[in-house]
Amino acid sequence: MAESLPYLANALLYGALAYYFWRGRWAAAAEGASAEGARVPAAFERFLVLAPLLIHTWLLARAVFAPDGMHLGVANAVSAILWLTVLVYFAGGFVYRLDGLQPLVLPVAAAAALLPALLPSARPLPNTEFFAFKLHLLIAMAAYSLLTIASLHVLLMTLIERRLHEGALSRPLRELPPLLSMEKLLFQIIWAGFILLTLTIASGVLYSEELFGKPAQFNHKNVFSVISWAIFAALLAGRHIHGWRGRVAVRWTLAGFLMLVLAYVGSKFVLEVLLGRA
Which residues, at least 6 apart from 39, have a Cβ–Cβ distance to it below 8 Å? Predict the structure, then answer.
C-alpha cells in the first residue's frame, strides 16, 4: 500500500490541476464569471504542470529502470507515453498556443501515472541490449506522444466548434487562436507524428532483422501499426489534394489514433493482463 501512495499523490496532483484549468477555461461560459476573474497569469500557469511532471519522471524512472533490467509492460508503457505527452505539451507551449489542452491532457496523465501501481510489470523487457530496439522504442514513444496530442487537439477543436454554435464560449477559449489556425497546428503535429510513425515501422524492421533474421513478423501489432500509418497517410494526402478539414479531419485522426492504441497498448494488455505473458 505504501508503495502506491506516491503514484496516488502524483495522479491527484494531475487531477487537481485538470480541475483548476477546467474551471478556468471550460466551465465559465459567461463573460466576467467569477471562475475567470481570479485567474492567475498564463505565464505562471504554464509552469504549474512541472510539479506533477517531475514527480512522474522520478516514479517512471524508478519503475522502468529496475536493477534486473528494463521494465516496460503495458502500465509503464502507457505511463511513459503520457509522461512524454505532457513533456511535449509543456515544451510546445512556449512556441504554440496550447493553453486549452490542459483539461484534456492532465486527466489522461493522471490515470496513466497511477497505472504502474495498479499493474506493476513483473518481468524485464528482453532484447534491450540491441541498439535497433532501443532506437525503435525511443522513436515509437515520441510518435505515440505526438499523435496523442493531435487526438486531444481535435477533441478541443470539436468542443470549441460546438460551443461556438451554442453561443456559450468562455473567455479563455475565445482567447485561443481561431479554428483555422488551430487546424493548421493540428496538421503540423500530425505531420511530425506521421514521420516518427514511419521511422517507428522502419526501425521495427531493423530490430526484427537484428533479432530474428527476417524483416518483420506478421502479427496483429504490426498489422494495426500499418493500418494506423495508412490512415494518417490518407488523411495527409486528402488534406493536400482535397483540402480535408473539420469533421473529416477529426474522424480520420481519431481512427488513426485508435488503430495505434490497438497496435501497442491493446496487444500488450491482452498478452500481459489477460494471458499473463510478457
Answer: 24, 45, 172
